[in-house]
Amino acid sequence: MKQKRKHVHQVDFSIAFKTCRHFLRLYSGEEPPDVEDLIRKHTLSVRHSRNFARQQRFQIPVSFTYWF
Predict the structure, then answer these.
(1) Buried b (16+ CB within 10 A) or exposed e, 32-46
(2) H, E, C per residue of the chain
(3) What are the Cα distances from residue 22, in Å, to 1, 32, 38, 39, 44?
(4) What CA–CA distance (Å, rounded) separates 28 from 4?
(5) What residues have CB less than 8 Å from 20, skipping those under 6 apart?
(6) 38-61 per-position pLDDT tens digit
(7) What value does the mean pLDDT take over residues 32-42?
(8) pTM
């Protein structure tokens, strides 16, 4: 099912992975979800003109030799 959208869309990998993992871990008696529909709902738009530098956060290393 194709939809007319302004941008090209891609699947959100983290949500797709969690959905597939949930599907594979179903216990007996549970009704399986519609995996394709759940993945289709969570998409991200691909914007080629967006090129921002990745913001890197760092933590100052802490020594494990504590002085009391």
Answers:
(1) eeeeeebbeeebeee
(2) CCCCCCCEEEECHHHHHHHHHHHHCCCCCCCCCCHHHHHHHCEEEECCCCCCCCCCCCCCCCCCCCCC
(3) 24, 9, 12, 12, 21
(4) 39
(5) 35
(6) 888 888 888 777 777 767 777 777
(7) 86
(8) 0.56
